[in-house]
Amino acid sequence: EPEVTQTPSHQVTQMGQEVILRCVPISNHLYFYWYRQILGQKVEFLVSFYNNEISEKSEIFDDQFSVERPDGSNFTLKIRSTKLEDSAMYFCASMGGGEKLFFGSGTQLSVL
Amino acid sequence: GEDVEQSLFLSVREGDSSVINCTYTDSSSTYLYWYKQEPGAGLQLLTYIFSNMDMKQDQRLTVLLNKKDKHLSLRIADTQTGDSAIYFCAESPGGYQKVTFGIGTKLQVIP
Lengths: 112, 111
Known about the structure:
The complex is a heterodimer. Chain A is mainly β. Chain A has no helices and eleven strands. In chain A, strand 9 and strand 10 form a beta hairpin. The termini of chain A are far apart. By secondary structure, chain B is mainly beta. Chain B contains no helices and eleven strands. In chain B, strands 2, 4, 5, 9, 10 and 11 form a six-stranded mixed sheet that branches. Chain B has a five-stranded antiparallel sheet with strand order 1-3-8-7-6, with no helix packed on it. Chains A and B meet through strand 4, strand 5, strand 9 and strand 10 of A and strand 4, strand 5, strand 9 and strand 10 of B.
């Protein structure tokens, strides 16, 4: 069964450093998403992406965040200058048929 | 804005039925979902229901939707220890718009 893959599974970084989280969505899907889950809190929507542009973003997704589809398979989330409060599990997801959202296993980001 | 609420914890004995409840606020919700998260894993789509349905059954899983009360439930029949996980209720207006999640209900199955 096709799946969304994310790398790395764990990322540790120093506060103020840039991180790039990588995702390979399901190959025939056209809509891509990033969500995050801070420990003990809800899974929160960050951004959706379609046709090489952002289609929706939350208030969490400020100027420190950016997304990119650098080639035909990868979808990345960049955090320019990480803060302690960015520590969370980041999930990539993709949607093909308009109703089923498929998630990757997540990247656990720890900002020290 | 949209909000999805669910209880934090449910404990059941192996072989019993589990019922996980959820309420949501967005009247434009078109799709209601149940996702399962096992430790260290991602969110696995278990089942979903379209808002014009009031019930959907899929093997041991039964989803009930009361659209008037904005109440969704997931019943797991003959609960097994492998069902121990966190179950997330979620909703979406559809059309590739964002999916809004509840905080998740941790299901503990006692052997």
